Amino acid sequence: MFTQFNVRSFFQTLPKRFRQQAKKSFTFLFTIGLGLSLVAACSSNPSTTSAPSGNTASPVANVGAIRIGYQKAATILSLLKSRGELEKALAGAGGSVTWTEFPAGPPMLEAMNAGAIDFGYTGESPPIIAQAAGTPVRYVAYDPWSPKAEAIVVRKDSPIQKIQDLKGKKVAFAKGSNTNYLVISALQSAGLSYSDITPAFLTPADARAAFEGGNVDAWAIWDPYLAVAEESAGARIIQDATGLAPNRGYYLAAQSFIEKQPQALKTLLEQVKKVSDFAKSNPAEVAKFLSPELGIDAAILEKAEKRREYGVLPLTNEVITKQQAIADAFHDIKLIPKKIAVKEAVSNGL
């Protein structure tokens, strides 16, 4: 069902002048990024969605090709691609859209840095990791997602009842992911330190196998894998991210795209918001669309959809401050090599 991300082919698609730069930072970013991807790449099928068409935006003058990077599990961009409304909105001005699928956020942002894409969406961690690696990123909007859409779980028969009980235990999570920060924050709230547990850095698929096999004591995971763990593996939540981690998503754009095509970016975000509004009001329809894409039962996906939030919102000081807290925490555990100022990567052009 899933196709393998071909690194050699990826670099061949980049302009020659960007290849050397991209290769220098790709290894670091891609290693972190594989743990962040909810699913590996699989091809899109527009006929699988039953989402109704929204109203198109006014045509935009002087628009060329807009290149969008996406992950299959990024609900909104996957829906946007399948609906074709963005293409319709831009067609009157001679614009077109090119979609490139990525297995994770970091290689997507490296492609943006190399000039291969203009726009993308990731979770909290990839832009932090990219910025720390010297890759320029620009936040243009955020998606609230939901703190209830990620949690630390244990097996239903586990004696572990609260976060304090994790001391000396092995906890699985994807390195550098949103749940990596959840673990840090949860331990601090319980008077424990990161060194009080043994991290097991595993991708969601490997973590599930280790969790069900009893090779780890707890698992920090996000939806839809969280819903899968609850429904299929009988996982019990001991702590979700409420009050501990924001669990947001971010829309990012290349600085050159922001400067050269601000109206096209505005139209793009308008279309993203229309799809987001539809998804917010139609969790069952979204679940049906995602089910064949992700290989997960629609009923489980609907559970995940009902506890997440949607939105395309401007960056506020509060949001930037919280993203900075995540960056600082990652520096404290030496996940990123230097301190960064998140506000320096926030676009002021919207």
Automatic annotation (TrEMBL):
GO MF annotations in UniProt: ATPase-coupled transmembrane transporter activity
Gene Ontology annotations for the cellular component aspect, listed alphabetically: membrane; periplasmic space
Gene3D superfamilies noted in UniProt: Periplasmic binding protein-like II
Location within or outside the cell: Periplasm
InterPro entries listed in its UniProt record: ABC_SsuA_sub-bd (IPR010067), Solute-binding_3/MltF_N (IPR001638), SsuA/THI5 (IPR015168)
Keyword Signal: yes
Residue ranges of every copy of the Solute-binding protein family 3/N-terminal domain listed in the record: 65-293
Swiss-Prot/TrEMBL keywords: Signal, Transport
UniProt family annotation: Belongs to the bacterial solute-binding protein SsuA/TauA family.
Cited function: Part of a binding-protein-dependent transport system for aliphatic sulfonates. Putative binding protein.
Protein's recorded name: Putative aliphatic sulfonates-binding protein
Organism field: Leptolyngbya boryana NIES-2135
